[in-house]
Amino acid sequence: MMETIELRELRETDWQAVHRYASMEIVSRHQPWGPNSEEETRQYVDEVLRDAAKKDRTRFTFAVILEGELIGCGELTICDRSNLTGEIGYILHPEHWGKGIATLLAKKLLNIGFHQHGLHRIQATCDPANTGSMRVLEKCGMTREGRIRDHLKMNDGWRDSLLFGKLEHE
Fold it and tell me: Which spans of this chain does the record mark as coiled coil (predicted)?
């Protein structure tokens, strides 16, 4: 049976729950950050709160709540208001991988982007080695559009990214 998740705005007091997964090497291995120190996780949450308070807000970061517990975060970023484009991203505690929660989260983020913010196109990227994330993006109806070479500077060099996209009418 599919678990039900809630999305809510991230709060300052959430940093410890975020740190539970952001401090794990397995969670950050495909990312240009981490594993986080407590200070780095606090800085991330502070940055999210500052972005949420901006007048012309473009970054929407949601705590993912399952049975009252924060198990991850999802983000929608409005990249270009004139061209109505956005980008989604997500991260979950590994205890919740492989259960369909990330797919449900990605679908919710797409819905928010298309229906609450009137976006025309939403994209996402992932490490070509991250087959789990690739499957999530495909399951929520995103199309693999190509490969961005040397897209992210990682601790051990540059990383390519796969680009996925979805249009509002798809």
Answer: none
